[in-house]
Amino acid sequence: MIWLAVLLSMPFVWIFTRHDTLRRLAGRNIRRRPVEAVLVVLGSLLGTAIITGSLVVGDTIDRSIRASAYDQLGPIDETVSASGLEAGAELIGRFDGFSSPDVDGVLPFLVTSASVVNTGADGGTQPRAQLLEVDFAAARAFGPDEEITGIQGDSPEPGFAAITVDLANKLNLAVGDDFLGFAFGQQLSLSVDRVLPRTGVAGFWGVDGRQQSYNVLVAPGTIEAMIRDTPAADAGSFVPPAVIVAISNVGGVESGVGLSDAVVATVDELVNPLGLRAAPTKQSLLEIANANGEGLSQLYFTVGMFAVAAGVMLLVNIFVMLADERRSELGMLRAIGMRRRPLVGAFALEGWMYAVVSSAAGAIVGVGVGRVIAWRADSILNSGQETAGLDMMFTYTAATVWTGFALGFLISLITLVVTSVRIARFNVIRAIRDIHEPPRARPRRRVALMGSITAVAGVLFAVAGFIAPDGYGIMLGPSLVAAGLAPWFARHWPATRVNTVAATIILAWAVVAIPVMGALDVAIVIPIFLAQGLTMTAAAITIVVVHQDKVGRAVARLSGRGLPVRLGLAYPLARRFRTGMTLGMFSIVLLTLVYMSVLSFMSRGQSDSFSSNLGGGFDIVATSNPSNPLSEEQLAEVPGVDAVAPLSYVFADFVRGDDDAALWPVTGFGAELLAGPPTLVDTGTYATNEAAWAAVHQDPTLVIVDSNFLITPGAPGSRAPAIGDAVTMIDPQSGLTRELTVAARAEQDLIGNGAFVSSLALQDLFADRATPSRFFVSSGDPDAAVSAIRSTYVANGADATTVTEFVETLLAQNSSFFTLMQQFVGAGLVVGVAGIGVIMIRAVRERRREVGVLRSLGFTSAGVARVMVFEAAFIAIEGILIGVAIALIASYGFTATGADWAEGMTWGVPVPEVLLIVAIAIGATLITALWPAHRAAEIQPAAALRIAD
Amino acid sequence: MRKIYRTAAGEVEALRDLDLTVDEGEFVAVMGPSGCGKTTLLNCLSGLDDIDGGRVTLDGTCLHEMPDSERTRNRAATMGFVFQAFNLIPVFTAAENVELPLLLAGADDRHARTRAVETLERVGLGHRINHRPPELSGGEQQRVTIARALAGRPRLVWADEPTGALDSESAAEVMDLLCELHATGMTLMLVTHDAVVGDRADRMVRMRDGVIVADEKILVAAGGR
User: Which residues on chain A place their C-beta less than 8 Å from a C-beta of chain B?
Assistant: First the structure.
């Protein structure tokens, strides 16, 4: 990318170094207008800053998730897991004498989930912790570097434990403090003898998806002793400990991953006879990191591109105005013999200088933008459930900054070259006399021909889009046909009518295309919305610009046809291209801001229906430590608890079609849930909600999934399996599979249930690992019941949350994300407002003579200022109204997509929020317009006329 | 009256102790070489520009003692301007340009438009009312300028080189028009360096280096000037 930027700069460097006159011309024009030069650079650097910022966000998210893989796993590349001590002993035995040229370490250890309580005055409870038993000496020797194992010293003595820093912080534990651990119905009194980092073996965390490691590393034999002491009656009612054999590949923390496939194949040969298999743990985490990083980076990049589009329009406008101002100068240069190419070069050279400076500054500012977003995202991501949290580790690479610079620079360069070429096509005499080129009565034959080619390409694109099916083809194909045919029709019919019809068709199709894609089951990737937004804006602006005189007449009539109004309307109505570009800047930014505001509002509005659908007849989700689970009876004894439905809860690999396996939670339910099951959004072939749940309960080959099932995080890019689709459920430990058929569609899974199958189906595959430790609870007073469950069963690691709290926390988090994106795209508003500023400043200069005439005719200085402010306000308000209107139409279309992720959304408008956005945009515009207006008012008529004459 | 321009290179005294009285209904031509201060005189007399000494009185009221807003209103009510470079608003049609001073004086839309069309017809541009300045020839643009200056029926018209950008035929047409309007009683002060144009005035003021060097009545011969 950077080399392309360098390559495309070569002609400018050549002009700069070899053409003294052109360089002086460009340089002096910049020096002559330093304030404008600064505004141009500021306006265009924002585009680069936004691009770089979104790339830096991608780097940061990627690094943050990779931290789990690199820092938390350290030397661990693969793992093999066996459930229970006996199976574990067999597994360890298989590795006796094992060696492989790709492996530099094998380390067995034992883990089990536990709950931990600090009994001190400032203590706390951690229901989800892990007891980890390992030979410290062996662990320190595991892999290439002792440092990355996280293990320090010798194994703890009985009664002592090394804890990870996350647990120490959470429970306010320090070396020497005593605490209690609970598992297998036993209580363990321990004393902290050291605090270890969240790294390598010490940081290994297999309990759930959270980033923190709440590990308690205990003396060898501790876990075995606890199981031994468990009454026989209780054995079998808890999930047994897991023996893990960790494998370190040859190479460093990062490079060793490359050998993962080979090592997994080798180890599988060793452990498959035991019904076990090796998992490429680090590789899988890295794949998830990549998917998440790319998804979020794409999201911010796409949203940022709206602001960049506004920046491009600002650049075009700036150069068109620059050319207007220099028409006579350029005409004279042509008249005295300068050919078109060097003329374009001279003009573009100035722009190139702006582009270099603004892109370089923009890339640097972009790093700061990325940092702010990462900081805000960190607090948002960690505001919800801890299992879904992510510590943002701000980082960026030099390559990212260069890419941001190159992208911003190339966009600026292409814009200015295209604009310069267009500008250079003027009539010399008209240019010298400063007469604007008259609009052509009908398009040139050449334009009509190019339009026809575009139309044909559009047909092919559309057909391919519908056959594939592909969202881009469906969205853009028909629009290209309409846009391409317009010049051809305009040669035979009035251009106004033809352009209106074509733009209306494009606008209507852009709205309809999304529901059409939903109906056709097309994956709608985020950039489709960018295409939709840009298409709609272009079409709407075309319609408005074509009918600008009617708009102007209406505004003049409504405002009493005062002279300031008429004068303020005169230029926007006369300079339609310029007005169109400015309208585009405003409308595209407002479209994005309002669209997100509406989506956020609709999302928040789903709270009640989500809570009701997800909970069904139950109000609370209670969890407990799988190694010391609560029983249904224990929960039923809690005051206020009316009913309890025990659930099995495990993570399984799921595969559909040819896709890679994805680790996903799966909940097994029993007959108790049928008393009040969650409300399905699609019951498939079953007549009622209850019938669907009953069928899945009875048939172990059926599964209920939600609309996010198996969808890559970060983007609504793919679709969940449809009703009737087959998916394969795999036990990650043994590799055993079960074929399942999707029977019904559940509400969006905001509480982490994953897929629903019958508990029998789950126990059939996962055996004692599917022991129920999770519960749906109904209560007349859910909040009181939650407190009671938490306080009564600390030893069982009991935790409880109301379904409503789950939903509200997640929706609040979503809302915060929308706000963050609005703030991100808000930079586009700065572009728009800066654009208005630049345009008004240039307008004052351009119209110095007219202001002088008006003043000589008796127009007061205050009147001149009013005209300028009215002009800015008219353009801004028109652009804002177009943007808001498109956003409302598009968001309405969004709810009608039929897409899974719009399921259950009811269209609504957050009126106060939209009004606030509009008020900020108008207010900022008016404030920006005040200074140029003041400058215009200060113009001395005699001086203006003297310069003019 | 004195007028000094201050530039980075130093001060330039454009008008030096200049004294001039113009009677109502007079047609005064100001002539002199380029840079002698003709346009500056006109700008200062009309109140478009500030002065550095002396007084400009109109009907006994000192123009430069008025606040800017009052001076502006006074201009709108009593004066009309014709410039060498026409100085029409390019995005307005001929009619819209002409009705501007009427609207500034508070006329309603309908009256302003009727009056603008009448005035354009009077200057021979009835067929061009909806054309914009770039679509008109130089002579036509200057006639629009004159129509704009006259539309508000001002008592005083300032014309700065009104024929300077025109060919001889167009220039003659424009001068015929100005003379015709002056004949209705309007005071006309015209700056020119064209002797043919200057000869059509009642009174000739000659300037050099910011001072009046001659001020003479032009005698009207029997049957003509």
Answer: 435-436, 561, 563, 566-567, 570-571, 573-575, 849-850, 852-862, 940-943, 945-946, 948-949
